[in-house]
Amino acid sequence: MKLIYDVSDRPPIGKLIVFSIQQFLAIITATIVVPVIVNGATGLTVLDSAAALVGAGFGTITYLLFTKFKSPVFLGSSFAFISPLIGASMFGYFGVLIGAALAGGVYVLIAIAIRFAGSQWVHKLMPPVVIGPTVALIGLSLAGSAMGDITKAPGANMSYNLVALICGLVTFFTIVFCSVKGNKTMKLIPFLIGIGVGYVLASLFSIIGYTANVEYLKIVNYDALIQNFSPVKFTSFLNYPSFTFLHTAGDGIKPLDGTAVANIALLYIPVAFVVFAEHIADHKNISSIIEKDLITDPGLHRTLLGDGVGSFVGALFGSIPNTTYGESVGCVAITRNASVVSILGAALLAIVLAFVSPIIALINTIPSCVMGGVCLALYGFIAVSGLNMLKGIDLGESKNLFVVCSILIAGIGGLSLNFGTNADGSPIITISSIATALILGIITNVIFNKQEASKDSAPAAYAEVSKSVSESATEETTTEVATEETTEEIAE
Questions:
Q1: Scanning 107, 116, 242, 373, which has the fewest C-beta atoms within 10 Å of its C-beta?
Q2: Stretch 18-40: mean pLDDT, rounded?
Q3: Model confidence band, residue 44 (pLDDT cutoffs 50, 70, 90)
Q4: Contact (Cβ atoms closer than 8 angstroms) between residue 365 and residue 225
Q5: Share of the chain above pLDDT 70, in %
Q6: How far is C-alpha 312 from the chain's CA centre?
Q7: Model confidence over 370-407: pLDDT tens digits?
Q8: Mean pLDDT across the stretch 148-169?
Q9: How far apart are CA 401 and CA 204, in angstroms?
Q10: What is the pTM of this model?
């Protein structure tokens, strides 16, 4: 793919701020929703959304340091750890910190093993025929969430709403128009423009709805802004989040003894291995986009260390282990802005804006239908980028066909592995459908496909993917961004 800004490029400061805001908006919904889900499930207020943003920011910076600023990926709150967080929350803040430390420890141990044993086994164990459908599955598995959001309007039941659907689709088509037909600047910030247009349209419907008292037209819920200034006080403008490390003493709900630690370990460690599989998939995906094999340079051991240590740093501030975000990868791919400085800018924004009460309140008023339109593009690109990895694979060969079949059907069908039972009937350990599908695909490939990947197979696969993705872009854009003159015009 012909990038407008490569990994090491530094956009002009004005453009950089805009790009950072776009990356920030691409990841914010998923990052702040995890605390909401966990608090809702437990009935407690152990987690704080603003603190999760700070944790994601510092976690991302930690990751960038470990990867020598060579990998343009943002780390945010991991959905895979929702179930462990619900269980560990019963033991207070110490419980979630111990869980995060155990999960990060798994990453560190694997990274040490890879540092001495090398990473070629990753290419052999997970060639494009395995990793391609797995990446596609990550996007497809999120489709239900995106489509659920795009039809929702505020209300007691978050019911189906055609006006909300219109707002979501306008957001989506605005993003598509900016990416395909827009000028050079629009092509770099399609998500920012899309969210803005969608929010304005939703606000217009809402103004009519509130004025005429028509519930169906009330698409934007402004309660967060109203409550922030009711009454007006200093914390209405600046306030510090409820950081985890401020509540580690005396906040345990259940005794934190040896048995509790063992239970937490059983909750977190298996999930860490699941997220490890997603980590590899995300990094192979971003490698194909930037045409650089991150598994080799800076190395899988460095990306794992950055992810593992970054997860603990994130949990220290916001209680939630982090993970590499597909939304961030999709944003890089669609905008063709891979500048790692933009990722750093987004991380700094997450930290700073978490203290600015009106900004957090305003972000909380962005309707789910608008973000659903954004996710329609982001998740779709993740799915397509995975399928593009299969372009050079002969699916006429049964040994390849059944590997892909096993991954897609098991993953989309929701085949998960559950072990043990809690008092409420829920499983103690759950291996997600994505991880289960990946395991099944690896086993199928190992048994029936004896072709071993050469040392150059992975870079070749990345080149093939990048070529196919590049071909899908418009010829006009490709030729325009290929010259240095165009980059200078953008800077101006």
A1: 116
A2: 84
A3: low
A4: yes
A5: 86
A6: 17
A7: 988 998 988 888 888 888 888 888 998 998 999 999 99
A8: 84
A9: 50
A10: 0.76
Bigger pLDDT: 69 vs 253:
69
Count of Cβ atoms closer than 10 Å to residue 279 Cβ: 22
Nearest residue to 253 (alpha-carbon basis) of 88, 97, 92? 92
Q: What is the mean pLDDT of the chain?
A: 83
Closest among 2, 359, 15, 326 to 189, alpha carbons compared: 15
Query: ∠ at Cα 209 (206, 213), nearest 5°?
Result: 145
- Greater confidence (247 vs 409) lies with 409
Please report which confidence band the pLDDT of residue 46 belongs to, taking 50, 70 and 90 as the band edges: low
Instruction: State CA 88 to chain mean position distance.
Output: 23
Phi, psi of 69 (to 5 degrees): 55, 40
Q: Answer whether 370's CB lies under 8 Å from 237's CB.
A: no
Give the whole-angstrom CA distance, residue 52 versus residue 241: 9
Q: Hey, how many other C-beta atoms are within 10 angstroms of the C-beta on 457?
A: 16
**Which three-class secondary structure string do you get for 45-79?**
CCCCHHHHHHHHHHHHHHHHHHCCCCCCCCEEECH
Give me the pLDDT at residue 429, please. 67
* Neighbouring residues of 250: CB distance < 8 A, sequence distance ≥ 6: none
Question: Can you say whether the dihedral through the CA atoms of 280, 281, 284, 286 is positive or negative?
Answer: negative
Q: How many CB atoms are located within 10 Å of the residue 210 CB? A: 14
List all residues 6 or more positions away from 460 whose beta carbon is below 8 Å from its beta carbon. none
Instruction: Dihedral sign for Cα 216, 217, 222, 226, please.
Output: negative
Apex 471 CA angle, 483 and 192, nearest 5: 70
